[in-house]
Amino acid sequence: MPAIYHSGCQSKQKIGNMSLLTFRTKHNGPIKSLNNEHLRQEDPIDLDIIDESFYFFKSNVFFSNFEITCESDRNLIYLTLYIIECLKLISKSTNRRQAQQDLINLSQQKFALPGDPKFPLNNIYLKPKNSVEADEMRNYMMQMRQECSTRLIDLIWPSSSLPPSKWWICFARRKFLNIQLNEVDTY
Known about the structure:
Layout: E1 14-15, E2 18-19, H1 49-60, H2 72-92, H3 96-108, H4 131-156, H5 166-169
Antiparallel strand pairs: 1-2
Helix pairs in contact: 1-2, 2-3, 2-4, 3-4
């Protein structure tokens, strides 16, 4: 039986029970720079949590169960579900520019946080303790979403003269852990 892939990123900082991991980013938010102590020690190419979510996506998306071994696994779960939402949007787009704009809009739209009735992962995430922690969580998750969207469009649709990669788009209908974020209209 194949093994599910877990995050190798580490951080001592947390928001609720989700790791506050640093990652390479061009977007404004609570993460300002990448600190090497948070990268995988055994990986010579220094994957951050966004890279890990892409790297493990095609393997992990087939699983209906996921044993959480560390807080950064929660980041990986959320990003995997978010990537599926992005793939739904990209599959409907007629060109790269439209897909890019749709992903920007998706990453910045209002989304549910742990504790909200519409948040599908309430059973594995702790609700923020107060409004300050909720704002910090929202800003961190939004920055993760923005960076994920930016990198994903380049990965799936590298050139406007080419169609999107069918080897990624085929996962748009998948349900990781039998859950969907339901931020994009379904088929």
